[in-house]
Amino acid sequence: MLELLIQNWNQFCKEDNFVGIGATRKVYKVSDYVIKVHLHPVGYKQSVNELKIYTSMQKKGLDALLAQTYYVDNYISIQKYYTPLELKNNQSYEINAEEHSYLIPNLFGKVLKELDSEFDCFDLEDSSNFGLDSNYKLIFIDYGMTKSLYEKGWVPLAEKGRLPQIYFDFCNICKMKKELCMYGDEDKDRRCYECGKE
User: Fold this and answer.
1) Tens digits of pLDDT across the chain (198 residues)
2) Which H, E and C letters describe the chain, residue by residue?
3) 129: Cβ contacts below 8 Å, ≥ 6 apart
4) Given phi > 0 = left and psi -120 to 50 = alpha, else beta, which region is 162?
5) Residue 74, exposed/middle/buried by CB under 10 A (0-12, 13-18, 19+)?
6) CA–CA separation, 109 vs 129, rounded Å?
């Protein structure tokens, strides 16, 4: 199956397989896998980081809390699929050790510390970076953004309006308060993804 996805990935990346979109990658579910399509070179760098991090953590025996990254090239990465956490009031939220203790697996603190200190990972406690395993415990599914990539790659492009910043505001079409992708201060198109804005 993996070889089929690698060779024919664009045939599987259709709206009915769509899972989510971020500033730099768009994600599709196919069977037990996700295909992350790189929308920008920063997305490619995130995917390369995920493969490196997963491989390194696997050697240390700390890979159980990370979605396995199987493959990366210039266009896509392929990772194991986990059910994403649901949004609260149409937005992501910060994972809190006390409030979400029922979701937190053993070794979570150790893995979190390793990702921070060893790999310089950024924004690790945002709910959008997690899925749930078969025991309804947290799994890191988006762990390739480093502090340095964020500061030197993402921020300058977001400030120029080339990569979206996420704002929680009302969509002009559906009138619901949601996370909106906004491209710089001059962007007046206040639509959510469901209403047609990527």
Assistant:
1) 999 999 999 999 998 999 988 889 999 999 999 999 999 999 999 999 999 999 999 999 999 999 999 999 999 999 999 999 988 887 889 998 889 999 999 999 999 999 999 999 998 999 999 999 999 999 999 999 999 999 999 999 888 888 888 777 899 999 988 878 888 778 889 888 888 887
2) CHHHHHHHHHHHCCHHHEEEECCCEEEEEECCEEEEEECCHHHHHHHHHHHHHHHHHHHCCCHHHECCEEEECCCEEEEECCEECCCECCECCECCCCCCHHHCCCCHHHHHHHHHHCCCECCCCEHHHEEECCCCCEEECCCCCEHHHHHHHHHHHHHCCCCCEEEEEECCCCCCEEEEEECCCCCCCCCCHHHCCC
3) 123, 140, 141, 142, 143
4) alpha
5) exposed
6) 15
Two tokens at 183? 């491209």
Q: What is the pLDDT of residue 89?
A: 81
Phi, psi of 25 (to 5 degrees): -145, 150
Q: What is the largest CA-CA distance in the chain?
A: 49
196 phi/psi in degrees, rounded to 5: 110, 0
Q: Are 150 and 126 in contact (CB under 8 A)?
A: no
Q: Are 44 and 74 in contact (CB under 8 A)?
A: yes
Written as six digits, the tokens of 160 are 């120029």
